[in-house]
Write a structure and sequence with these properties.
This protein has 279 residues and is mainly α. It has a single domain (41-278), classed as Methane Monooxygenase Hydroxylase, Chain G, domain 1 (Up-down Bundle), CATH 1.20.58.480. The protein is built from twelve helices and no strands. The longest helix has 32 residues, at 44-75. It is globular.
């Protein structure tokens, strides 16, 4: 065994980057790693910032993949859509795992820097709102926190003006089961998607004739899988907040845990959950 330090350069690895793009250059690491600026001297504020910044990065990827999945669905490329939906579920798994790290912060730790947050709060995340809007949980009232940023407000408003991903799925559902789209319910553009009996009836047909409608059955289960991870993310958020601040009001003025618990009752694809009691 050699006593000399291992040198990858001896095997051909490039070791000098004065004239070439390095790993750090490609990822813009100098910029990325210079975005953590605590507003207090509390050690745990760095954890809090990085937890939320990394979550925003995962949400950015989720939005990218869901946008691509919707485009693939509209284009009839179901194979690509399935791949992207599976990836989104794994992204939410990563978001869920991140709560385990934040839960290492105790109530005493959090109180040392909570005042430094001012009125900022996670419910103001426009990327989280975009995820909900794309999937079909559409509350126009939640545009208000973004009125001070015109580009973001327009981005969210434009999403509300177009059919959600689930609306496009419903179109495919009726086209597959009925053979046409003559009776497709109008998209619920400006309100959370509420269960529609006609949609649930078509899904029931799919589940009772799996061999005939295998593609739609497979899509339905991928949607249920995605919402399952999404619900766990919300649940982990609730339990983490309750563990750290109890029933105090949120920094953004919400009722805190009570507000988050209300969000647990939201169903993204209600027909897919309700029909299970009929099978």
């Amino acid at each position: 065994m050699s006593s000399q330090p291992y040198d990858p350069g001896n095997e051909g690895a490039k070791m000098g980057f004065a004239d070439a793009m390095s790993y750090g250059d490609y990822l813009k690491l100098d910029t990325l790693l210079d975005q953590q600026h605590p507003h207090s001297t509390a050690p745990d504020e760095m954890l809090f910032i990085i937890q939320h910044q990394t979550s925003e990065l995962w949400m950015k990827l989720a939005i990218h993949e869901m946008s691509q999945a919707r485009d693939a669905l509209i284009a009839g490329d179901t194979s690509q859509m399935f791949k992207m939906l599976a990836r989104v579920s794994r992204i939410f798994e990563q978001l869920n795992n991140a709560w385990d790290v934040l839960r290492t912060m105790t109530p005493a730790d959090y109180t040392t820097f909570r005042e430094a947050l001012g009125p900022s709060s996670g419910f103001q995340s426009y990327q989280y709102r975009m995820i909900e809007y794309v999937l079909g949980n559409r509350n126009p009232n939640m545009l208000k926190p973004h009125e001070h940023v015109p580009d973001v407000h327009k981005l969210l408003s434009d999403e509300l003006a177009r059919p959600s991903f689930y609306d496009e799925v419903v179109r495919l559902l009726f086209r597959t089961v009925d053979g046409h789209e003559d009776h497709v319910p109008a998209p619920q553009l400006m309100s959370p998607h509420a269960a529609v009996p006609e949609i649930q009836a078509r899904w029931k047909t799919v589940y009772e004739n799996v061999d005939t409608f295998w593609t739609m059955y497979d899509l339905a289960e991928k949607l249920v899988d995605l919402e399952d991870y999404f619900r766990r993310w919300r649940f982990n958020h609730v339990t983490t907040v309750e563990r750290v601040i109890g029933f105090k009001r949120g920094t953004g003025g919400t009722s805190g845990v009570q507000y988050l618990r209300k969000m647990l009752s939201v169903e993204l694809f209600p027909e897919l959950w309700h029909l299970r009691g009929e099978l």
